[in-house]
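User: Can you recover a sequence for this backbone? Please restate the input before giving your answer.

Assistant: Of course. Working from this structure:
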């Protein structure tokens, strides 16, 4: 069994502040999450692949 984190990289408004991050901010946040996953010893960090907004990961 492996443990990890999966993200679709959505660029949507924050439910508490209502602020929508830029695509660059979202990518930086995903990198920080991946780094933390590595730091704490998780087995995997994965992203979905989308080709249209509001998602930043694509092929």
């Amino acid at each position: 069994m492996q443990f990890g984190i999966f993200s679709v990289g959505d660029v949507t408004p924050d439910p508490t502040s209502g602020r929508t991050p830029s695509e660059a901010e979202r990518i930086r946040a995903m990198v920080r999450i991946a780094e933390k996953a590595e730091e704490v010893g998780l087995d995997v960090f994965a992203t979905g692949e989308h080709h249209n907004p509001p998602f930043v990961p694509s092929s």
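That completes the design. The two ends are 27 Å apart (CA to CA).
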